[in-house]
């Protein structure tokens, strides 16, 4: 286990930098999507600087971890309001790429590039995409090291029934409602189906199955360090406030 963790969390970032970062390039359409996204972020900086003003001593990067419906985006926005940070929303980038008729392959690169621009502008950054994948974490670790910036991870989770219920009840955003699915129905119904499909697809990354008590899913213990874990099943905003206080005290 120690060797696996060392390979994934220590060595892999160097491999990703050499074999991925130094070779990957954006197409002109992807560059257009990136520019539009960066412009919208910087425009918010100009219009409402107080909301994104860095409250830590030095800029930090926060990577979120959690399933769709676990509260990643809600926690990210709440945390951002306490520490003064900009939330990089992966779905917004995917929508821009879709409008350019491009694939989503370079969503991560665009998000990281824009995040580094915010760091250069002395701002904190929160990436609301799920960083459970070791390669995605390694990429972010590499970029944080390049920027000489502290990186922490925050995990969100909730009871499975609550996550399913949220995905069914809440209206899907533009990304999910516009995604393709063979299910015939309204845009909202299709979006809900896609959200549930993506949640189910990623459950094995976050949970393991046990046959005890008739069978149930148990949250996996992560093989790497996270700064905090937040159960969003019930009231959670006070927990986020406490985590923000720890961040401000430490960084």
Task: Report on this structure.
This protein is α/β, with parallel strands linked by helices and 251 residues long. It has one domain (2-163, 224-250): Rossmann fold. Helices cover 56% and strands 14% of the residues. It has eleven helices and seven strands. The strands form two sheets. The protein has a five-stranded parallel beta sheet with strand order 2-3-1-4-7, sandwiched between helices. Strands 5-6 form a two-stranded antiparallel sheet. Helix 2 packs across helix 5. The mean pLDDT is 91.
The CATH superfamily appears as P-loop containing nucleotide triphosphate hydrolases
Mean pLDDT: 91
How many distinct beta strands? 7
The tally of structural domains comes to 1
Radius of gyration: 18 Å
Low-confidence stretches: none
State the CATH topology.
Rossmann fold
**Main beta-sheet annotation:** 5 strands, parallel
Helix-strand category: alpha/beta
Main-sheet strand order equals 2-3-1-4-7
Strand content: 5-15%
CATH class: Alpha Beta
| Contiguous helical run count | 11
Please estimate the helix content: 55-70%
Global shape: globular
